[in-house]
Design brief:
Helix content: 25-40%
Structural class: alpha/beta
Strand content: 15-25%
Largest sheet: 7 strands, mixed
Radius of gyration: 24 Å
Order of helices and strands: EEEEEHHEHEHHEHEEEEHHEEHEHHE
Distance between the termini: 38 Å
Strand order of the largest sheet: 6-7-8-14-13-12-10
CATH class of the largest domain: Alpha Beta
Number of domains: 3
Shape: globular
Number of strands: 16
CATH topology of the largest domain: Rossmann fold
Length: 390
């Protein structure tokens, strides 16, 4: 569960609709006043991951709706967890009260355009109680007395992608213990706690090693930043992963059979991996200072869109539209009940025909696999009826 407000713990699941707990799924909303409560896969291991959600909440005006594809009604007869989920969901909805919205200002035009694409309202800096700026802008423009007063009086300053010079300047300007840490290029971060600002953000959204094993060959890793941070005062919300060697496997060439075990032994068994923060929160007077090393979305990169959308929603910023205003959320098409409707059969195919069939498949698949995509084309095979199942 990404948000503990309802109170029912459901493990992250990878499920096929019409079986177990789930009906249809929806892609995680990336640009609406919504909070993702549960993430799951849809049979898309490797090329997908936890891109789907069967459970999220969305706000509309002063109201709230929980959108659920969990089969709680028909499971309630035999499963106490379903009854508990229904009960606590109704209690949560009955007790929910709309909070007063905060206002957001993004002075930099490039950053402002990216936030605008996510659908969030923006105001002038003088009218805002949440300010978002890049590390580059912070270094060049600095911080004035008015901004410090604004944060001390209850405002929130977000600085994204701060290099070492910027991190040191933040420490000096705000009199906080903050130091830059270089552990190499950063591609993935993991949750350090269950802070409210992380509601709706799972480790899926902060794992940017998109060319990991079994993914389509065209996938590329996406770098977040080169710098992390340490502090004895701040609250670390996200940090580098210390219980895996994903970065060594998928960026440094250590995935081969003869390198994997020595690398794992060196990093995980002989030593404790060095840890540093990629998202740090400081309390400053009545306000907050948030430094995050996750960049704003480039080229419609969905993981970044979901991260920033959920973070800004958690800060209480209003959106310009709602899922109820005619937008749509892509849902997963129903899968089969486990039995084929028909079987396509090609007897004694020539090598040329095999090459054509394989060529229709996903380029990330190996030649030993005949994909559904390849077999669904018209290759003049015989279609056999589905055998009867008793």
């Amino acid at each position: 569960m990404m948000n503990s407000a309802i109170g029912v713990t459901i493990r992250m699941v990878k499920a096929t609709p019409n079986r177990g707990w789930l009906l249809n799924l929806t892609l995680k909303p990336a640009s609406s006043n919504s909070t993702i409560l549960l993430g799951c896969g849809f049979g898309d291991f490797g090329s997908g991951g936890l891109n789907w959600t069967p459970l999220f909440e969305t706000r509309y005006g002063k109201g709230l709706a929980i959108v659920s594809q969990l089969r709680v009604s028909d499971k309630a007869v035999h499963n106490p967890s379903a009854l508990k989920f229904i009960k606590l969901s109704l209690q949560y909805l009955a007790a929910w009260q709309p909070e007063e919205n905060n206002t957001l200002a993004v002075p930099d035009k490039v950053d402002s355009d990216k936030i605008d694409l996510l659908g969030f309202r923006q105001v002038k800096q003088s009218e805002a109680n949440v300010l978002l700026i890049s590390g580059n802008s912070y270094v060049s423009e600095g911080v004035d007395v008015k901004l410090k007063q604004q944060v001390n009086n209850g405002g929130t300053l977000i600085i994204h992608n701060a290099d070492s010079a910027c991190i040191e300047k933040i420490a000096a300007d705000w009199l906080v213990d903050l130091h830059p840490v270089n552990l190499g290029p950063v591609y993935n971060l993991v949750r350090g706690n269950n802070h409210q600002l992380l509601n709706g953000i799972s480790n899926q959204e902060t794992y940017w090693l998109d060319s990991a094993q079994y993914t389509p060959i065209q996938n590329k890793n996406v770098k977040m930043d080169n710098w992390l941070m340490r502090s004895s005062q701040g609250i670390s919300l996200l940090h580098n992963e210390t219980e895996s060697c994903w970065r060594e496997f998928y960026t440094l060439g250590a995935m081969s059979e003869w390198l994997r075990m020595p690398v794992i032994t060196h990093y995980l068994y002989n030593n404790t991996r060095e840890k540093a923060s990629g998202m740090m929160l400081f309390n400053v007077g009545k306000g907050e200072l948030l430094v995050t090393q996750i960049p704003l979305p480039e080229n419609e990169y969905k993981k970044s869109k979901i991260y920033w959308s959920q973070l800004i929603v958690n800060l209480g910023i209003d959106t310009k539209s709602s899922l109820f205003d005619g937008e749509k959320v892509v849902f997963g098409s129903p899968k089969s009940n486990g039995y084929p409707e028909s079987v396509r059969c090609i007897k004694n195919p020539a090598k040329e025909l095999l090459a054509q069939i394989i060529g229709k498949g996903n380029p990330g698949e190996t030649s030993e696999r005949f994909t559904n995509q390849g077999m669904s084309e018209d290759f003049h095979g015989n279609v056999l009826p589905r055998p009867r199942v008793k």
